[in-house]
Amino acid sequence: MLALRLQLLAVVVLILACSEPAPKELAKQPTAAEVLGVKPDFTPRYEIIDMDRPDIAGAPRLVVRVRVPRGLSREELELNVRHALLKSYDSAPVRLGAVSVAAYVSERMSMGADAALGEFAPGGQWSAADPGVPLSGWQAKISLDEYYFEHRTYLAKGTRATLVLSSEFSDTISLSRKANRWLEEDILAELKPDVPVVVVGYEDFGKVGVRYEVETAIKPKRKGWVHSFNLKAE
């Protein structure tokens, strides 16, 4: 009789156990592509320039620089940055704590990103880098540079122009031997306004502006670099 009671008790316990709701499954984590909003059929229009791993406080971080073409819309530019963040995150050999993408449109990269900046990290904060945070806690922050959308024109080689002052605090225009520096040792001459010159070439320094190589049209002949705001085309 005791054995029968024990068997009945075991059956009741088994039935009750089976009738209890199963523990909830852990919420499925989103993929990086889902968090970043990048679709599988997106066609990127950028090229990777270089990558760096500035791991700080034990958190693996990745900094990527890319070059984008001119002519992208705001939406296209942002999507390209998001795709670069995704590709960088997914292809890393370790689980990253944060990813940053700097997008450039000009050849000069020493002046900072001139197209867009993007960060993919916990809460969208680079400083919160932590590979242990699930992707559900990650966000992307994208900022577009207005310079990218400016329509910039250039003076052609051979264009005749005159020198003009750019500031009331100076009465001369500094002619530099280098396109990227105006240190004391770089100055070839201090020229007066209204001196006629001929454009020889130019370099675009992105957000910093355009610099022109010019040659004076009067003697003594001098050849050097001036800022675009120091030129007035005839």
Overall morphology: elongated
Beta-strand fraction estimate: 25-35%
Query: Biggest sheet, open or closed, and with what strands and sense?
Result: 5 strands, mixed
Rg is 31 Å
CATH class of the largest domain: Alpha Beta
Examine the secondary-structure arrangement and name the CATH architecture of the largest domain. Roll
Tally of contiguous helical segments: 3
The CATH topology of the largest domain: Diaminopimelate Epimerase, Chain A, domain 1
Domains, number: 2
Main structural class:
alpha+beta
Residue windows where pLDDT falls under 50 for at least 5 positions: 20-25
How far apart are the termini?
Answer: 117 Å
Strands, total number: 12
The percent range for helix content is: 10-25%
Q: What is the fold's blueprint, element by element?
A:
Layout: H1 2-19, H2 32-36, E1 47-52, E2 61-67, H3 74-91, E3 98-104, E4 116-122, E5 138-144, E6 160-163, E7 173-176, E8 187-191, E9 196-204, E10 210-216, E11 223-227, E12 231-233
Parallel strand pairs: 2-3
Antiparallel strand pairs: 1-2, 3-4, 4-5, 6-9, 6-12, 7-8, 9-10, 10-11
Describe what you observe in this structure:
- The structure is a single chain.
- This protein has 234 residues and is of the alpha+beta class.
- It has 2 domains: 32-149, Diaminopimelate Epimerase, Chain A, domain 1, CATH 3.10.310; 160-233, SH3 type barrels (Roll).
- It has helices at residues 2-19, 32-36, 74-91, and strands at 47-52, 61-67, 98-104, 116-122, 138-144, 160-163, 173-176, 187-191, 196-204, 210-216, 223-227, 231-233.
- The protein has a 5-stranded mixed sheet, with helices on one face. The protein has a 5-stranded antiparallel sheet with strand order 11-10-9-6-12, with no helix packed on it.
